[in-house]
Amino acid sequence: MHQQAIFKLLTYLAMGCAVSSGPLAGQQPSFEVATIKPNDPVKNPGGGWGWSTSPSGLKAFGTLRSFIKHAYGVEDTQIFGGPNWIDREAFEINAKPFAPVSGKEFWPMLQTLLDDRFALAIHRETRQLPIYSLVVAKNGARLKQGDAESPNFTTGATLLRGTMDTAALARHLTEVLGRTVIDNTGLKGTWEFSLKWAAEDQTDGPSLFTAIQEQLGLRLESTKGPVEVLVIDKAERPSDN
User: Fold this and answer.
1) pLDDT tens-digit profile of 112-144?
2) Strand ranges inside the chain, DSSP E
3) Are residues 32 and 71 in the same domain?
4) Do 133 and 222 lie in a common domain?
5) pLDDT band at residue 200 under the 50/70/90 scheme
6) What is the pTM of this model?
7) For the chain, how far is it from start to end, CA to CA, in angstroms?
């Protein structure tokens, strides 16, 4: 009996050690180790956001607002509150996960890191904000049915091409315009898109709004509507690592 009890205890301890090598069940995804320090403008010149990932880690620099924007998948216009320094002071993040990860798996881990190191507290609200409503233009859509089994897209500064539904198109346009775009086309299924427009400081080519109508047979209407936003209740500069 004593031998069985000892065996069970050792098994339990071994399982506990195995679990301690990563986040416990039910806990928020997190990095194994992470450092946050003021950004070095010589090492990371320019403003805005820098992002580099590999299965073994994340390197990023930017303001707290830019971190929140990417961690939660929102636009600048959907973030409210917080102290002034969240837009002015830049930081560098170097983080390593417990095990190799990729793509969107980094986002919830970044959320946890921001909550921990910046003492970030936020809540969600729905507010009436300026939005764009994506609708079918007067003369009808100019779209070709796409292969639903092979969704894809290519983006550039003045280019959006791919195969997707109109809801996905609206999400991409939201990123380009910095304002929420709601899909009100009523179009079902997957479509092929090829959209090209001129940059704001160029006159050689159509604007994005004109290109959407001429090339896709769709239209953006400026209006107001309900938008989910993030309100920052609390944020502190990161503590020493």
Assistant:
1) 999 999 999 999 999 999 999 999 999 999 999
2) 31-38, 50-54, 57-63, 79-81, 90-97, 121-136, 144-145, 152-156, 159-164, 181-183, 191-196, 218-234
3) yes
4) yes
5) confident
6) 0.71
7) 48
155 shares its domain with 68 = no
| 97 vs 76: CA distance, rounded Å | 27
**What is the rounded distance in angstroms from the CA atom of residue 226 to the CA atom of residue 235?**
26
Q: In which domain, by residue range, is 139 found?
A: 127-228
Task: Report how far residue 225's alpha carbon sits from residue 131's, in angstroms, rounded to the nearest whole number.
Answer: 6
> How far apart are the C-alpha atoms of 55 and 97, rounded to whole Å?
8
Do 199 and 145 lie in one domain? The reply is: yes
The identity of residue 46, as a single letter, is G
Residue 15 lies in a domain: no
Identify which of 171, 177, 172, 152 has the alpha carbon closest to the alpha carbon of residue 162: 152
Would residue 236 count as lying in a domain? no
Q: Which of 72, 94, 118 is the last residue of a domain?
A: 118
Among 62, 100, 110, 91, which Cα is nearest to 238's? 91
